[in-house]
User: What shape does this take?
Amino acid sequence: MNGNNQPIGFFDSGVGGISVLIEAVRGLPHESFVYWGDSLNAPYGVKTVNEVQALTIKSVEALVDKGVKAIVIACNTATSASIELLRERFHVQIIGMEPALKLAVDTHIQGAIAVLATPMTLKERKFEQLMARVGLSHEIIRIPAPALVLAVESNNVSEDALFALFDQYFESYAQGSIDSIVLGCTHFIFVKEALIRYFKGSIRIVDGNQGTIRHLEKTLMDLQALSSSEDKGAVEIMMTGGATSQRIAEEFLRSGLTQKEG
Ligand code: DGL
Assistant: This one.
């Protein structure tokens, strides 16, 4: 039987990509994973493109050294700054992420679509291309939310702290004017429930995590590189920022997996 039992690498600037890893562990239980979170250098979304490229290359090198068979760039910001560069430089299969604007547009009913993402994701060329492809006939509001990255990265996600940020982000939009919110940063999946409560259930929230994992599965299937193991795969988490970020990442993974299974 064909197959490849090497692990799949996941990369993010910090803990955000754990939200994508949770989907992967659930959807591809026989695969093993190595997660590399560059929490020492997070956040990426307020750095220069050159800085993000250099940091992303270093992190991807570390994953390649672990012998991974594919890498998911579980970070919209790193994808927008570096995906072409990574594909030129590394021979391993690389899957990127972008805000799930197409999904929001396809399932849109009325009103505006807000994209909540990092400043870099929203101003880079890749987002303009995405807008030109799918967003032109709709009212799209860009909301850069760098402080929300920091809140999640430090696990400062009490309802008070989050609602104060949401007040800032959404105060200039009349109630009911936003129909859907695209979570264009993987960190923000961890505040999805708080957003639903903030809007009292009146908006739709869209993200690209499941689509990314379906794409990963299809890519590995086409390459005949899905694991042939029938056992549950292993998950290794490596955070560059030390013990605190390691603990937060492991806690997010554990609670994400239990919540979804429960
Ligand atoms: N998690 C990252 C993303 O999806 C960005 C966070 C950061 O600014 O470092 O864009």
